[in-house]
Amino acid sequence: QVQLQESGPGLVKPSGTLSLTCAVSGGSISSSNWWSWVRQPPGKGLEWIGEVYYSGSTNYNPSLKSRVTISVDKSKNQFSLKLSSVTAADTAVYYCARDAGTAAPGRFDWGQGTLVTVSS
Amino acid sequence: QTVVTQEPSFSVSPGGTVTLTCGLSSGSVSTTYYPSWYQQTPGQAPRTLIYNTDTRSSGVPDRFSGSILGNKAALTITGAQADDESDYYCVLYMGSGSNWVFGGGTKLTVL
Fold this sequence. Notes:
heterodimer, A: mainly beta, B: mainly beta
């Protein structure tokens, strides 16, 4: 069973870049899945950020597209999120997830999440 | 931008049946949106309950079911239990560009 684990700084300064990595274990990142990032501000709902395929193809939330980069590192079996020009509004728990794709659309396997706070 | 709508809150009595819905600010939800449902308790990651309209994820009790009711997707809990008290989120697939859009979530109280 695949497991996902987020890692990265828990505190980022305003106007800086948020960088997170999701390590995938129990399965290959080169399998036929999309690999997603989802965030949840404190006390609020879920927001899909974007996704990457092992080939490097990406899709992003239009509202974040200008600031987001999601990439994959097949050699390390992990994928990453970069969000630039952050503000306090980007403070959230960030989840990485595997989207089973066309085989099972909407079936997400979730990481445990990591809280990132944007503050000086 | 299209908004995915959910009831902000709902309550159900233990043993009762409740149906939560997932709609669109404009238009009808159909199976082509692959509606999916997630359960989240405080401090925990979401858990996939239902995907692709009506397929239960592995290990999910059969008292959770998904469907299309009228112009919305629906999650029905039959025989509600105390530990069903959670936040429930739906998500819809909007196609290339927007891909997945979550609803605002429904806080379910069992009392």
